[in-house]
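Hi Q.,

Before the meeting this afternoon, I wanted you to have the magnesium ion prediction in hand. No need to reply - just skim if you have a minute. The sequence and ligand are here:
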Amino acid sequence: MPIISFANPKGGAGKTTTALLLAMELAERGAGVTVIDADPERWISQWAGLPGKPDNITIQSDVTEESIVECIDEAAQDSQFVIVDLEGTASLMVANAIGMSDLVVIPLQGSSMDAKGGAKTIRLIRNQERLARRKIPHGVALTRTSAAVTSRAMKNVQAQLARAGIEVFQTPIVERAAFRDLFDYGGTLATLDPALVSNIDKAQANARSFAGEVLSWLKSSRMAEVG
Ligand SMILES: Nc1ncnc2c1ncn2[C@@H]1O[C@H](COP(=O)(O)OP(=O)(O)OP(=O)(O)O)[C@@H](O)[C@H]1O
Ligand SMILES: [Mg+2]
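Predicted structure with the ligand bound:
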């Protein structure tokens, strides 16, 4: 039932890749997941057209600015998790999806640290929080980081963002061929061929750790609501 949106008006920030990784990981844990594919490029729908999509991942690609609210509501009734892969612009569709979300993940390329898109998303979230008169949990996920980046360097980046009042997921999404190759070969990280793709185990560990963190964020925000 939780709704998790991936938003950053900056194109190529890693929204689609990170959204698919999370969907796969939640499905691997046995959950029924609906992905609402609101990316005009429809990458996740194309992935779903390749062989190997897990049965417990459903893709909803027929979504427009007018239908997104209804589409998210319906998916939330049927699925344990709803993941919304948003377009790389700041549109009414993005604002509506954010307004309905239990968690907004803001992917941001860790290498370039291009935070402008991220800042724009956070302003959008703050506006939606005012409209809805509730907090919308959100955090930056650093993407395409180098595998060589030390945890100390990561901690520095996180500390910098934290000083600006921005929460950051501790697990960055590392630049991995496996994450790109999913969209070519289809299937999941578990079904990629190790003879063709390197470091699948590291990619899996990365996706698993990110999903674990998302689950604990959802849990703690729900506890905050109850408490
Ligand atoms: N962790 C990663 N490892 C390797 N390649 C990546 C990773 N994250 C993203 N990419 C690549 O970077 C490009 C942009 O990523 P992606 O499509 O996920 O971004 P996006 O934010 O959804 O873009 P858009 O705004 O166009 O929808 C793609 O070619 C993708 O394969
Ligand atoms: Mg995308």
